[in-house]
Amino acid sequence: MASSERPQEINEGRSTLNGRVMNWLTRRRIAAAFGSVISRESMRIVEQDELPPIPPPDMQRVCHVLLQVRDDTAEDISRNVSEVIELLVREGAVIEGILSSIVAAVFPLKPAADGMEIEAALGRLGPNVRAAYQNGEHMRGMFGSPARMTYGTLVPDMSTMLEALLHSEFGTATRLDR
To answer: Cα–Cα–Cα angle for 125, 127, 132, nearest 5°?
Structure first.
């Protein structure tokens, strides 16, 4: 019985060794490709396959905005999303995500800010865009799973924002109180 188990043990050992060699080769390729543009400490982390712990999200004061552009055709979506992103970035927003005709963005809020400049920016979006937004303290940071992490804002009761967005008229921005 022991002799019949031995080939399986050898194959498992080879498989583990092959995996380690492949990981080592992958790390060496990354080092060769990016070694001249990232720090030695970062390279050490890559080479040793170490990942620092991901910091938890923290509370930040932001204006969270959901926008939808007119989506009658793919060309409309492309043009309108491009225009919206350009305007938002110029106004100081951080684009967090794009899902076809819907854009999620945040404006960092200063402690004494009343949000009037953000309302003015949203007023410049034009007739092909509708928006829902809310000011408040939101958790922001890395979240997800080890297979797919993202950086963004965690908004409780997002369905309320989506509902307000989808029931609003194009050319309007609806403020939600928190």
So the answer is: 60
27 vs 46: CA distance, rounded Å: 6
Instruction: Compute the C-alpha angle 137/128/109, nearest 5°.
Output: 20
Angle between helices 40-47 and 2-34 (to 10 degrees): 160
Among 158, 74, 63, 156, residue whose Cα is nearest residue 116 = 63
CA distance 109 to 120: 14
Q: How far apart are CA 64 and CA 156, in angstroms?
A: 11
**Residue 139 φ/ψ, nearest 5 degrees:** -75, 130
> Domains of the chain, with CATH numbers?
2-47 (no CATH), 58-175 (3.30.70.1230)
Structure tokens at 88: 């938002």
DSSP-derived secondary structure letter, 168: S
pLDDT digits (tens, 9 = 90+) for 61-96: 999 999 999 999 999 999 999 999 999 999 999 999
- Beta carbons within 8 Å of 62's beta carbon, 6+ residues apart: 106, 107, 108, 109, 135, 136, 138, 140, 153
pTM score, two decimals? 0.69
- Tokens, residue 90: 């110029």
Structure tokens at 84: 């919206």
